[in-house]
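Please decode residue identities from the backbone states below.
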């Protein structure tokens, strides 16, 4: 009689997509000795990959209508999501991902170019689930010529008629920072309440900017380095606190700085703890260019803050295709770790981003791809070939791994230039 073989798992460990594995078939039956009856070499391909982009927690308007990826310089490949989670495999040194979203009838086609290490570092959760809270409160001591801001747990609001509502407060323990800044000549004032654990719907005790818990701000002179002819300079101040380096807005500069120095207000040493940092914001604007820097210092002291490098004017050309395909060529200043090129026409937007890890140098060529031959693509998503509009090229010092600026002397910089097509 023919024995009935049974199966026995010989390996139950993990397998990886693209992994080549040798399998051995074993047959057993009563009265027969175990023997190998065959071997085979196979490549595991389960339809997964080493890159995961998760839109499952996003609102419908934030989920892509279409998504594709590029493995190094290979052709673009369309990916079908499973429960709004997209996976694909990048084997080369770098890759790209493109997707389409739509809102109120206007489409945005986004293309991002990253190194393999950046793409595969961890699953990208586009809309991470976070619990946020809202609290309300009242103030005293805010006059009609004053501007007051209150911040807590990542949420910031402006006081209006001595009342405020702060939304978007993250879970956990946070410091409340309130700051009154005069629009004329009255003195400023600040309040910090440490270690609050707010509950949604809390009504906070009154913030009295003339009361016992208030402090008189410290001041310092900030000298601005690298101002170009014709630039208009604005200064704002922020404050970072807590283990999560929460950002609190102290005040926004509303009038241009006169000259190359500005007196700023902040928190005196007696009201600080070691993990607090002032963020000195400076922005410089020309007709078609903008650049900004935020420099972080614990103590508020006289300091020189240099403006970042200006973005060069790119060479922008139009490529052939069934929709508007622009190409931008320029040299990215070394302090910027990411660069973007974006243009809008016929109510649709095309945007491209590349990291320094992808570029491998300062030379940048961003050309909007031709997706017209790919399954599911709709040419109407992109700016129409006959459209005209504006483009913006930008650079930023923030990288994909930047998580906090709560360190002495750290800087966050950005620059952009714009034109028409």
């Amino acid at each position: 009689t023919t024995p009935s073989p049974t199966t026995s798992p010989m390996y139950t460990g993990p397998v990886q997509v693209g992994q080549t594995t040798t399998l051995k078939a074993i047959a057993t039956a009563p009265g027969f000795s175990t023997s190998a009856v065959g071997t085979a070499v196979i490549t595991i391909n389960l339809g997964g990959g080493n890159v995961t982009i998760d839109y499952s927690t996003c609102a419908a308007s934030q989920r892509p209508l279409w998504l594709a990826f590029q493995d190094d310089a290979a052709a673009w490949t369309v990916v079908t999501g499973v429960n709004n989670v997209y996976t694909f495999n990048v084997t080369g040194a770098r890759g790209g991902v493109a997707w389409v979203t739509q809102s109120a009838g206007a489409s945005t086609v986004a293309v991002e170019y990253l190194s393999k290490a950046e793409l595969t570092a961890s699953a990208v959760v586009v809309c991470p689930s976070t619990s946020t809270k809202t609290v309300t409160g009242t103030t005293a001591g805010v006059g009609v010529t004053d501007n007051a801001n209150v911040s807590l747990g990542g949420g910031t609001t402006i006081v209006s008629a001595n009342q405020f509502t702060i939304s978007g407060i993250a879970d956990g323990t946070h410091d409340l920072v309130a700051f009154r800044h005069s629009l004329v000549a009255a003195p400023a004032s600040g309040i910090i309440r440490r270690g609050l654990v707010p509950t949604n719907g809390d009504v906070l005790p009154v913030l009295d900017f003339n009361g016992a818990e208030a402090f008189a701000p410290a001041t310092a002179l900030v000298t601005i380095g690298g101002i170009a002819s014709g630039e208009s300079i604005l200064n704002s101040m922020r404050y970072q606190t807590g283990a999560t380096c929460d950002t609190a807005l102290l005040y926004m500069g509303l009038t241009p700085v006169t000259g190359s120095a500005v007196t700023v207000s902040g928190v005196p040493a007696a009201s600080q703890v070691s993990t607090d940092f002032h963020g000195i914001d400076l922005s410089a604007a020309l007709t078609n260019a903008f650049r900004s820097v935020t420099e972080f210092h614990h103590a508020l002291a006289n300091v020189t803050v240099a403006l970042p490098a200006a973005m060069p004017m790119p060479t922008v050309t139009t490529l052939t295709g069934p929709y508007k395909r622009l190409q931008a060529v320029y040299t990215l200043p070394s302090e910027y770790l990411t660069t973007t090129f974006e243009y809008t026409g016929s109510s649709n937007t095309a945007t491209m981003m590349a990291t320094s890890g992808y570029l491998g140098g300062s030379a940048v060529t961003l050309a909007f791809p031709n997706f017209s031959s790919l399954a599911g693509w709709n040419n109407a998503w992109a700016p129409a070939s006959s459209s005209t509009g504006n483009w913006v090229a930008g650079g930023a010092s923030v990288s994909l791994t930047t998580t906090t600026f709560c360190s002495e002397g750290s800087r966050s910089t950005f620059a952009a230039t714009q034109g028409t097509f």
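Observation: The longest strand covers residues 94-103.
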